[in-house]
Design a protein that fits this description.
The protein is α+β, with helices and mostly antiparallel strands and 287 residues long. It has helices spanning 3-16, 24-30, 35-46, 50-68, 73-79, 85-96, 100-104, 153-167, 170-177, 195-198, 238-251, and strands at 130-135, 138-148, 185-191, 200-208, 218-222, 225-233, 264-268, 279-286. It has an eight-stranded antiparallel beta sheet with strand order 1-6-8-7-3-4-2-5.
């Protein structure tokens, strides 16, 4: 099964079991994928988490039933996974901007999120500059926080983590400690050791450092790997986000490599992050 076929098969599985209490582990198992990379790929390609996709699709179907059947609102609430009519109404209004009762009376337009069909662009209109590196194990030092990928917590809160650390000039401390081969401040995303059970990732703001670990920081050893290293050119955050999308929508489908469930790195230089000439990198371990 090809990379793109597995992603589409997983979406098809979600659709078949949309009204059931399915987990990320069940979805990934269905397509013989790691939870980490399925969730990572899905969120990069669609700008939403699996949980958000399921919520939007359920509320789209609920709106259709409101318009086309006489099903009671309380029954629809339970059918689509809500513990109470109040919780259903709150979620319904957030997506559709009208209440279920107003929707049934056709008092406003509804937001329809259709079933996803993943399409991959292989045209390569924009060239990607990359290199393959073999690197021995190395140490990073920094601070970390743990986020839930299934709920989309990582997408919402990692930018806040960066803002908090930058406001404390933490990046300057890391630059001073950066005496390893990879130059710059690192954003390191790695599956939590219990990820298979709880869909957590550890996210580090760190630096490649050789030597003793300062008392206020933690350390992590990143194993020896083969890496594909992509150049990122342009202002943050758009340049980084666009490169991630291009990697998963163009590069991986047209190359013989697969990502592995290990640390992924974003490498930020000391340049002005908002400059059109800003240079950064993305490091992905591969097999």
């Amino acid at each position: 099964m090809s990379w793109i076929e597995s992603i589409q098969k997983a979406i098809n599985y979600i659709e078949v079991h949309l009204l059931e209490d399915i987990t990320m582990e069940q979805i990934a198992h269905e397509v013989h994928s790691s939870v980490f990379h399925f969730q990572r790929t899905f969120s990069i390609l669609t700008d939403m988490s699996i949980a958000e996709y399921i919520r939007r699709r359920r509320l789209t179907l609920a709106a259709q039933e409101l318009l086309n059947t006489d099903e009671k609102i309380i029954d629809l609430a339970y059918k689509y996974g809500y513990d109470s009519p109040e919780a259903f109404t709150k979620a319904f209004r957030k997506q559709h901007h009208v209440t279920p009762s107003e929707a049934r009376k056709k008092q406003g337009p509804l937001q329809s999120y259709n079933r996803l069909v993943i399409q991959v662009s292989l045209k390569g209109a924009e060239p990607m500059k990359y290199r393959i590196e073999e690197k021995e194990a190395f140490q990073v030092v920094g601070v970390k926080r743990t986020y839930n990928c299934q709920s989309g917590e990582n997408t919402r809160e990692i930018p806040q983590f960066w803002n908090e650390m930058n406001s404390k000039d933490f990046d300057k401390q890391l630059i001073q400690l950066n005496n390893g081969e990879i130059k710059g401040v690192l954003g390191v995303c790695v599956p939590d050791s219990n990820y298979a059970q709880n869909s957590l990732i550890d996210y580090w703001i760190a630096a490649d450092h050789i030597g003793d670990v300062p008392d206020n920081l933690l350390a992590m050893d990143i194993p020896a790997s083969k890496w594909v290293v992509f150049e990122v050119h342009g202002p943050m955050p758009d340049a980084m986000q666009n490169t991630w999308k291009q990697i998963y929508s163009e590069w991986f489908p047209s190359n013989p490599y697969e990502p592995i469930a290990s640390a992924e790195l974003e490498v930020y230089s000391e340049q002005d992050p908002f400059s059109p000439d800003c240079y950064s990198e993305i490091w992905i371990p591969i097999k």
